[in-house]
Fold these 4 entries.
Entry 1:
Amino acid sequence: MMAAAARFLIRGANPKLSISGGGTLLKLSPSCSSRTKTQRRHAAHFTYHPDPVPTQYGPTTKMNLFQSVTSALDNTLASDPTAVIFGEDVAFGGVFRCTVGLRDKYGKDRVFNTPLCEQGIVGFGIGVAVAGATAIAEIQFADYIYPAFDQIVNEAAKYRYRSGNLFDCGNLTIRAPWGCVGHGSLYHSQSPEAFFAHCPGIKVVIPRGPVQAKGLLLSCIADQNPCIFFEPKILYRAAVEQVPVESYTIPLSQAEVLQEGSDITMVAWGTQIHVMREVANMAQEKLGVSCEVIDLQTILPWDVETICKSVVKTGRLLISHEAPITGGFAAEISSTVQEECFLNLEAPISRVCGYDTPFPHIFEPFYIPDKWKCFEAIKKMINY
Amino acid sequence: MQNMLTIISNALCRITGRHAGAQTVSELLIDLSEYVNITSPTAPVMVTTERQPPEPPPVSARAPEAQLVSAQTDAVARPGARVVVSRSYADFTPAMTFDIKKCDVHRLEEGPPLKAELTREQGLQYYRTMQTIRRMELKADQLYKQKIIRGFCHLYDGQEACAMGIEAAINPTDHLITAYRAHGYTYTRGVAVKEILAELTGRKGGVAKGKGGSMHMYAPHFYGGNGIVGAQVPLGAGIALACQYQGNNQLCVTLYGDGAANQGQLFESFNMAALWKLPCIFICENNKYGMGTSVERAAASTDYYKRGDYIPGLRVDGMDILCVREATKFAADHCRSGKGPIVMELQTYRYHGHSMSDPGVSYRTREEIQEVRSKSDPISLLKERMLSNNMASVEELKEIDVAIRKEVEEATQYATSDPEPPLDDLCNHIFANSPPLEVRGTNPWVKLKSTS
């Protein structure tokens, strides 16, 4: 809403990103920047690690994250005649361009704008879904999802349970841009996954890049439970990969081991995965520590088994997310893992998260759990 | 001299920026500007950190309703009828009564008067204020494009008559709350340009200490500055309840946009306000587009003044400051007389896009914007009225323009040289607490303190 801005911001801040991918990100970091301003608030805090080209799903084409989301929605609209997409400004493509061209291709009765009313959008989506159609709702920013909180928590999540399985709104998928963006300030940067993780009946999914985004989003749409799909908005343009053109799904509630290691397990999701991968390299190079990097992907219900298996092997666990530390989802993981793997632990489980402050305006670089903070945590755990 | 200073400091920044820390450059610039202030006779006194409100709204000059209606004859023909005569400009028309556009009314027997009186002093003050807001917004636009202002920024140019007209009709002790397009109201509620710009650039001297940014600005009796569409409206009703409870004859002006008018919270607030007869003026600034969607495509009824249903309403020409002023006075009297809330729709227009990412021309034509600019610009309208009725001279207005330009330039200088807030501020002001509260950090071994 007020934030149509982000479109420009992402493009404006790092103009080279969409052209040459993650490589240029490093060049924008403070040490080698030729910028003259005293603030350097928009240097990215991570280096994007593209996934290998998937071979099992047929031909691929180069897409960034928002294009892969568009592609998933395109596949859905083509294959499912009941699918409809609605949200604020989605008809002309949305502020992050995720629905570009879909109205023209499938008609304005299937891709349409709503007024600015988040509670209405979600409530409306539940109605659409409960009547049997496939509803894909967009909330313009995850920060704006709170007016719809009641509808999600009390209506969507409990529909199946409270009707004794007579009714459900499993056909509902809610998409929302999520996470920090470099300069989003208080209301365009939040990561509210933990709020929804406290709510049985919905699924919460966060992808780390274009290939995962498409597969997971299609899974969410196909899944017979209401799903919230959070898209890391800083990756919309920065993340570019070879994405399969055809429809494919990646299973929900399954964490993915991205890098095997023996000394420490690192769990994250969304943008933070890329921070973790960089930290894993740093730890290997500077400390000779072998890290196992796991992308949790589905926050609720989460894959306890993969994480615990890994911790049994490594004996150490580091969890990192952008949301504030207290009551963040890392707390749940930490608690479960210490119950399951207490005797395997070599060091206390470590959480590197956002501060317990509102998401700050100009202090974002200090707030972000960047690679240095994670690296420091690894040192502490190894030397425990 | 000031220009030279800018050039020098920019150069210094460029030269030293790579080696010296932000602090050093900022200090350097402050030193420089102090130097200039001392030595240059033309340099203004802008270094003080005190609030420098615009001239107070002409509350005292407000004529009672009856007088306004009766003052239909040319004021010049009745010398002595007005006290507000500027001595040194005796040949100017001291005051005039203008015909203004009739407001559409909803559940009201009578609307605001069809004539409004404008004194020369009021006219000049309105002109100065609106022009300052315009200049400030254009400067913010420029700073944004230079990437000095980052993040989310919503400009107010085009809508100046709303902010000024409302301020001219209420008392400084009345309350006002608005959404994220807040720069104009921040200024009319008494915050200096430099504090607004410094907030935009995230500096210590900003009105919210650099912690809020564009959408979050506050002043006494001005409750912000709210980022979530429509969320400020229930707050406004609550403020009005406090006024009613305290019995202080104050009221709350609660502003929202045509986009927010479709949020459910509004209707909850309307109900409570009407039920308890709260002194609240709900004002919908209808600038024709909620983000990128025109009102017709987002609202089943675009008669926003009727959407309070059981609450009386007014539709007002929001491009004419006199219309806005008279309608707001009317609404304020309505509230103060204990009749409960009233809804006002100000029909206005924003020249810029919704926010800085929005070029503002993908959902409306350039011609449309140009037509509004040329035919109903609020500043031109006032200027034209004053000039054609000999209430001011071209030179005089030009002088005001020059002074404003200078003020904005100096404010920019301040906003780009003032230091950023210290890192401690990251954790301050989370809770009201004493002694300081420990804030859990990104990891267990970093402890920060929060104070308020």
Note: Residues 1-42 of chain A have pLDDT under 50 and may be disordered.
Entry 2:
Amino acid sequence: MNLLRIRRFMLSPYTLLSAAILIVPLFVVDPFWINRLGLYLVFSILALSMALCWGQAGILSLGHGAFFGLGAYCMAMSLKLLSPDSLNQGTPFPLPDFITWNTPPGEALKLPWLWVPFQNLGFGMAAALLVPALFAAVVGWFVFYGGVSGVFISIITLALVVILNLVVIDQQPITNGFNGLNNLAPFDLAGVVFDPYGLPAYYLIAGICVLLLLGLRWLGSTRAGLLFRAVQADEQRVQYFGYDVAVYKIFAFSLSALIAGLAGLLFVVNSQYASPTIMDVSISIAVVVWTAVGGRQSLIGAVLGALAINGAQNALSESGSLVHVWQLIIGIVFVLVVVFLPRGLAGLGADLWQHLRPQAKAVEAPALVAEAELLSVPVPQNSHQSGQRQS
Amino acid sequence: MKRRTFIQTMATSAALTSVVGCSRGAAPGSSADGGETMKVGVLFSLTGGLEIVEKSMHDSTLMAIEEINAAGGVLGKQLVPVVEDGASDPRVFAEKARKLLISDKVATVFGCYTGASVKAVLPIFTQHKGLLYYPTYAQGNECPSHAIYTGAVPNQQVTNFIDWTMKNLNAKRFFLVGSNYVFPREMAKVAKIFLQENGGEFVADEYLPLDHTQWGPLVSKIKELKPDSIFSNVVGASTVAFYREFKNQGLTPEAIPICSTVTSEVETQAVGPEFVAGHYSSFPYFQSVDTPANKTWVANVKDKFGANTVTHHAMECSYWQVHIFKQAAEKAGELDPELMRKASLGLEYDAPGGLVRIDPDNGNAWLTPRIGQCQADGQYKIVDEYAGPVKPLPYVAYGETEQNLYCTTSGLDTTKFNPQEQQS
């Protein structure tokens, strides 16, 4: 029995996917592709945050780009101040180059107060996680205690990302507007330099992705995870049981925003760039599409969806002949998946998994086991117990 | 049991290798100067809000490459363009620039239109050793070490324009308006400094996002303030909405002329000539330039891309800069970016708009300033023209003169121009 459990763990889709993510660099030597795979994994982390928020807690956020972008900007501000260019502006303090362009003639140059604490890299990193999380908590407090639900949450979050995007573009003297922040210092943590084209940066991103995959799976198996799904199934009923539903929703929403901020931080490590186009409507919608195509209730699905769509997108947009239609193709794939594979790629994977192990059919509820594994629902023994607890 | 695990392992590893196979296949590693071909990067937006303008620049770049190939190539090698789409997004420009330099290993890239996209890719060219030929009019205040700029800088497009407007249109009070990013903001700053020095004034300084189309309130503000002239740095799709709203609210070019540094023949075509007619633009090249060389070039362009195609300044630069590249490569003997940049300096070419020269000091281009007034057919009547090409001065607003250069081959001289002094 013990052996069987170990085998099941070794062969679970989680272990296989994690192992695949970690051993890919053995096969890919081109630094450009190491960097690009790292970028895909950053997007996978963003998709994981959406899977938590939408798939587990049932909050369809159309504004996750805001959290991703806030995380990226916080990190980029610190790295901008550490770049040789900012340090050599002839001022006694580091000064981003664009501030000199944006200061009206005749005014003294100074570092805007918003930038001052970001001279400390640790502050920038912490802010990249906490600013999105706090922002989400405040928004969540108003939204969930205000009794807003369903489609209105999506509309509010969508409006948020639009507003934030406009503010960042408009405040050019502080944010460099549409140009974004570039020419950043490489990320240097305790002597380890994370060159975006090197293995350390890839493993930093891959490691965090794997940890989140396993961590969120664990979260799904806890009582909180169970409540998330219960709220999604029947919110009123959970409320009648005496749970403060809003608290759970705010928790899920903020944690999801924190993970999105972390993805933003890693995006900057990978791309050395932050601009308003990474905190706009299109990326917010894109992450919903990745998660839906992968299967929103599955963590693995979210990762696979982000990898598959971003990979396809680059392959198509760089193919020459398809440059004008690639967006159309992605759109059609999305529609087809939603119509014919409502459980996404993960659902398809679960079905195929079944076909690969036919003899298991005789044993205890195998379809359930396979799907539970893929959809990160607790394994049957647990679900029996928790089912009893619930009733 | 064993068989099953075996199959699963096989399936997984097959999936893995196919992923890796794809990635290898898409990343050709052949070097730039191996064999009978030579790879060059071409990076413009083929999709998104800036597609109309950038597609024409992309087309004329490829046209020049074809001509060069038909005439035997460069150093006996055929040029192979590696085309990427910047998708009107600086983030994508940065990503594709990295792909071109690191994965495709091209040494030279022709591309970029907006100042935002150039700012996004320049650090990449510096870091990964590439050379960018940038064919668009720029805002100045830049001294890049890994680029050749072939479009106009402020002393070839802005200072002459404001000077002319003040003298010939009797304008004193200017309304400054632009898209919200680095180019329009710096252009407006240059205009303000110049106005201050010459007894003019600005009554407003407004910016709207790049793809913004709601011009109602801003045009109302123009009506209210009644400026003598509008100095416009509006870019891309929002140009269309701007001119239309202007006319629809009853304003005329006779009462308040729009003086634009961005609206060329191609934007005029998109807006509709009836909305632009009567307004002014400043460019070193107009389709109406009356020389045999230009007539031949315009005819070739129409032949290739259709009778409705118009030519414009950035498109002309996109074309002739490839010929400068050819000369430079033949002078340098190889595509090493640093040698190539050195070799480009001082080169001359008989471009459609007249003689051009790459400045030996700052790597911008000597161009002939011209001012045109839009006619009912969307073509520009040249109302002012310099006798010959003028030396580019990217820091003209900050006191740079031909005798006192700030940007030279050794980079920006910070003893002459540094942010601290600039402010005092």
Note: DSSP finds 19 helices and two strands in chain A.
Entry 3:
Amino acid sequence: MPHQTPLYEEHAGAGARIVDFAGWAMPLHYGSQLAEHEAVRTHAGLFDVSHMAITDLGGERARDLLRWLLANDVAKLDERPGQALYSCLLNERGGVIDDLIVYYREPGNYRVVSNAATRDRVRPLLQEESQRLGVTCSARDDLAMIAAQGPRAAELVEQLFGDQAAAALACKPFQAALMGEVFAGRTGYTGEDGFELILPADSAPDLWRRLVAAGAQPCGLGARDSLRLEAGLNLNGHEMDEQTTPLESGLGWTVAWDPADRDFVGRAALEAQRAQGSPWRLVGLVVEGRAPAREGYTVHTDAGDGVITSGGHSPTIGGPIALARVPAAAKDDFRVVIRKREATARPVKPPFVRHGKVRV
Amino acid sequence: MSQVPEDLKYTQNHEWVRLEADGSVTVGITDHAQESIGDLVFVEAPEPGTSVQAQEACAVVESVKAASDVYAPISGEVTEGNEALADSPEAVNSDPYGEGWIMRIQPADAGELDGLMDAAAYQQLVADEG
């Protein structure tokens, strides 16, 4: 039996098509993925992301632990309580075990939100390292998480939380604040403004219903995927995995090389690849025609073949887009093989869509 | 509950088949099929003149989520593909038994139609698949 989130009954009651995602019974859509996608670009959508793994780290050496385990450097968060950081968690070969967001709450207190699919890989790593350094590691499976995303998301939060929302509404992207018992991060996975709301599981159904009543559209995993693809955001297991480094996945910007004396897991391997030059790079592709160019399809280029890591129909653009891993030297002549036919493609720098606007 | 019109024939692969007055058949995917596939964004219908064998994949419907093959319910020759679907694939979702038809086939042997399911049998198949 797949796990159910605290919001499962809300999804089932609304007639969602439920699918198994990484061992969780999750909504794929509530009728129309395209309508849900559109709601997030123009209004506000809601996602149940309670299947993600929330882990709190506490103690004097929590900062040391994260500086050792993460490729990005939580020292950037010092003196900035409420600030969040996106980072990869690497293996010794520089391969990506997971990508995650870490929030700095106060000295010696961090909150890590990592992926559902890697929960059983990441949690033991955090626990082991915590034990070694005397850090308290709490798996917060008592919490739920709701993402409210879209140009009207802030309005809805204000409407529901009133004066309590002041600090959260003042947050810039990648900052978090409390609204009563709700931990609100101005983060998301859609390319729109919005919040990820972390709260006690018992309180989640009530907040979900109130957000729906206020006009937010419940959205499933389908829209979540098409929105993140348009936003040019990587999905672990697709753009990167344990055999792929951040430098090959368009995530070089998340690696904190300085200070040079900070060692972190995977650093030596990454340094070597950086010196040699990565053989691959990740590009966005806008593909001609209407046929979706999907994950696994071959991409011919002037410098050899690459492969699509995520691809599909972009509702906002009205045609196929993709992320692809191609030879680093590829410059020209991109052609995607779609069922024995070739469709020319234009390489672009993601995002494809941001804040409701086409950017490519 | 999805619609299963009484006057059509059906296949195991969730296509519907309508016998026309001129002896050709019109083929599409069922309401149940469009519902499970989700919002369609692309349909590739076969070219007129294509010879098809029963059970042969000869068209593709793609939703936001995935690509699915459409199989020829019977052997014969394609006389027409629904070209309107190139610009409005969503017609398969909104009107699977009408505007959303996918292709017309001139059967090689009209007797093959007898091997297809009637509405009651198809409804049972959908129920069994849960």
Note: The radius of gyration of chain A is 20 Å.
Entry 4:
Amino acid sequence: MSGTDEAKRALDAWIAEVRAALKGLPPGDVDDIARELSSHAFERAGGAGADAVAMAGALEALGRPRELASLYLGERIAERVERNRSPWQVMRAVWRLAGMSADAAFVLAVSLAGYALALVFLLTALAKPFWPDRVGLWRLPAADGDLSVSLGRSLHPVGQELLGWWIVPLGLVLGSALAFLTWRFGLAGVRRLGRARAELNTPKG
Amino acid sequence: MNEAADSSGSIDRWETQLRKGGLSLAVLASLWGGRLYGLEILRRLESDAELLVSEGAIYPLLNRLRGEGLLESEWVEADAGHPRKYYALTLAGRARVKAMTGVWDGFARGLDGLLAPVRKEGGR
């Protein structure tokens, strides 16, 4: 096998990996991306006479297929969120980005915790009128004598309620505020993490 | 010595952030004189602005700028034996470059005023 054939085989294998990692994008977009990256690598390696070593260098300069594909996917996810910023779409975007980086996984964890707590506040506020004696913010005697606080529906009738009916307006306000802040946090995360992370190398004199 | 290394690392990180912030403007400005394909844009950024961009990352950025309507692209069959995807500024892209240049110039002028005494002191 000639060096040129080896170069072509290396390029084809690299492009196949990029294509596989771009799963989820429209096929036409994947074809376009693959064609552009092939053209870049081909020219960077020296054109028609490129050998395997030159092609390996060109592909290394382009980056690892999965990482490169994640840049495209991140851009696409961020672009979709700019068109529809609903909390559901933002959470979907955060969920998809979470598989690409540890930072995005952290944003997902904080978002899930934020929405869960917001939901507890809101449900507590809404349920209070129906079960006034069992729903609220409770201080519960723990087994070891310490005190713990429980928000929501108390399973311990001996617990002491702390806020009474104030839990209704407070729960609605805090739950809504927490949900709003969690949404903004997720949106900022998608914008920051989804955008192309073009790394620049500063030339040293 | 560690302090000197830390200081150098901080400066490097700050410079990287600064260059990243100006990258969109640099890419758009590189197309002011006419259409270019990806590798040409990279070379222009390096030769004219000393911006070394990781090669793979330029394409998602170009994709985004095209999605925002600032660039248009077309495939051209080149004499080199393989097609090249050329990018050009749209009217909205040209307007954006002008606006960004104005902001950049204003920022630089303002900062120059603050930096004048530092330069004067440093020059002694």
Note: Residues 91-123 of chain B form the longest helix (33 residues).
